[in-house]
Amino acid sequence: MADLTHFDEEGRARMVDVSAKPETDRFAAARGFVRMDEATLALVLSGRAAKGDVARIAELAGTMAAKRTGDLIPLCHPLPLTAVAVRVEPDESLPGLAVTAEARTTGRTGVEMEALTAVSIACLTIYDMLKSKARGMTIERIELIRKTGGASGDWRRK
After folding, report:
1. Catalytic residue from among 3, 17, 128, 154
2. Which run of H or of E encompasses 106?
3. pLDDT for 1
4. Residues 6+ apart with CB under 8 A from 98
5. Which of 2, 18, 28, 91 might form a disulfide with 108, Cβ 3.0–4.6 angstroms?
6. What pTM, to 2 d.p., does this model score?
7. Is 17 tagged catalytic?
């Protein structure tokens, strides 16, 4: 376990000490997809889903989740986020909805987990809001697509 930063020499879980790291501007973007049949996508686009505006509620849920990441993921540092943006957009090629999230902070550790958590919870919210009509939906490819800042520098999915 020597190369796993969340465990000490004795194998005990620990939160990584980032106090010696400099504060830098941090950014991360993530995405995911909810695949559904065309009729369910049409219901979302019509705005007539029984539980309300699916896309807007999922965007709000994702934003709220990003703010709670430190409470949800063990050993994840709670961060003072300076911005979170979650977007839910139709993707007729799936068919379904594409979810993207961006998170920003100035701090000693990155915001990748906040962006990924926002996407995950937004996708789960979409599923929850539509499951009475389409239990066969799938949540797919939740992934980091870009991050900037910190000692490891910038990274972009190819």
Report:
1. 128
2. strand 96-107
3. 46
4. 31, 32, 33, 88, 89, 90, 91
5. 18
6. 0.91
7. no
